Amino acid sequence: MKTKDIIFLSPEIYLICATLYYWFLTSNLFNPIAIILLTILVYQTIYKKLTIGLIIASLFIVLNLYMVLALISELSEFPESNENFMKLLIFGTLFLGINLIVAVYMFWKYVKKTKLE
User: Fold this and answer.
1) Pick from 17, 64, 72, 96: most CB atoms within 10 A?
2) pLDDT digit string (tens) for 27-40?
3) pLDDT, tens digit, for every residue of 69-117?
4) Burial letters for 101-115: b for 16+ Cβ neighbours within 10 Å, e otherwise?
């Protein structure tokens, strides 16, 4: 596999890793949500379907924008900025920022692919 292929598949690989991380953090080994997500992402990684790629990227953007609102709501509940506030601010912003960058890159990748076809 070439470096260009790995960069092209990097959003899908990131999403697979994030799903595996989510699955390992849950206490339930049989997690149907994680299993379905992994199945769809592995399918997308192998077959690279245009429609599914655009749907996954769009959903990922919308869900992460919702999570940004949830982060802002959670941060507003702190009466003063303490150590927990700063941890949530830094790690939440970093995590959601990376997620949004990956989602936008994936969306852009499949939109660019539609223009080529």
Assistant:
1) 64
2) 888 889 889 999 99
3) 999 999 999 999 999 999 999 999 999 999 999 999 999 999 998 877 6
4) ebbeebbebbeeeee
CA distance 53 to 114: 11
Specify whether the CB–CB gap between 5 and 48 falls below 8 A: no
One-letter identity of residue 39: T
Query: Does residue 55 contact residue 110 with C-beta atoms inside 8 Å?
Result: no
Residue with tokens 């992402």: 41
Q: What are the Cα distances from residue 102, in Å, to 13, 28, 29, 42, 87?
A: 10, 27, 27, 17, 22
For residue 87, which amino acid is it? K
Tokens read off for 78: 């702190």
**Counting beta carbons within 10 angstroms of the beta carbon of residue 73, is it exposed (0 to 12), middle (13 to 18) or buried (19 or more)?**
exposed
